[in-house]
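Handout, page 2. Input:
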Amino acid sequence: MWCEFIATDSPGVYRCRRCGFATAPTAFPPSRIRRACQQRDPRRLPSTTESPTRGFGDTVSWWIDKLSFGRLKERPGCGCRGRRAWLNRLLPYRREPFPGEGKLTSSASQSTYRVLLRFPHGLGDAVQLTTVLLHLRRFRPEWRVDVEAKLGAVSLFHGLAHRVFVAGRDRFRAADYDLVHTLAWYEPDVCYRDTPSTKAERSLREAFHIVPRRELCRYQIQPGAQVRRMATDYLAEVTSPASLDANGRFPAVVIHYQGNSARRRKNLDEQAVRKLIDQIVRLGFTAAVLDFETPPRAAILTSPSPDWPAGRVVCPTIDHPLWRAAGTGDGATIAALIAQVMLFVGIDSGPGHIAAATDTPSVIVWTGHHPVHYCAPSANAVHLVPDGHRELLRGRAEEGERFFETHYRH
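Output:
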């Protein structure tokens, strides 16, 4: 029997819940660590809770373990008939569960398993985590999930997580949880036939052993009433409220064209964005450029064109009251802004993923990444991809391209 590893307070260190063995710090998730457990129980069988069957390698390892230890050794003679009958009884069982899967607490409620997911990644990855939380709500209803994330990302999880904590600021007690898990979040490396192939779907399969459902492979963000009101007040300040369209949208276009990671594979050319803003201003709209650096990193903001009328190109920098002195952008506030304008234009970044969670018409431009690997499909988003976008797919490119052609507007 293999060790059943769970996360500890030390990043990358996992401990077996049965024999207590602790690993050295590793980048591998617990599901990929194999070690013969020193506290063996030959009668312990895998869980029958709803989950996909094991992979081929896991299945072989599991059967070797069962056939080399336990009841079969106790049988006299060759035991062929007994072995065949015993195997037939075991066939309906499935893989070992994720730590805590299908198990309940010993508390008085007897109905929840308390889980804290620690998520130390950026805003774009945090938006993708909403896909994971949607699946957990469907397939792990006995779990009460809390999330610890970065300051600008915690607002994304309201309505999806029971509680949210700001990493480095809010304290929690590990004793209040049955499991504290630092979620592994790996780059996508394959193409799936029937779902997107992003980090979220990989995490669902490898960390939680859940087969993603296509209808849940989306993003969901629920800005609160106060956040929506602040976004409305800001847009009314920088635009003409008298020009609202039939859907109540402000005459503005939100733009985000410079990311914080993999910039050479994401960022747009400065001159192209200047031409875009020229067209926006000429049509009578306001261009709201998102830039959370101090001072703003975008050269467009530090050296604007003399042809742009005053107040028609704006940027709510991080010291703006809109961000409530957080020192960074806020996911739910960005969602509230994008949801009330006429158009969003962006890249593979946090605001781009947030736009895919709204119903605002959005254009997302891709240069070095592929949307199948980095963004969930959405009815409101059109993806501009390069001519050779198939070369950006990983794994079975034909399956990824087929899914992209069928489920993405591009």
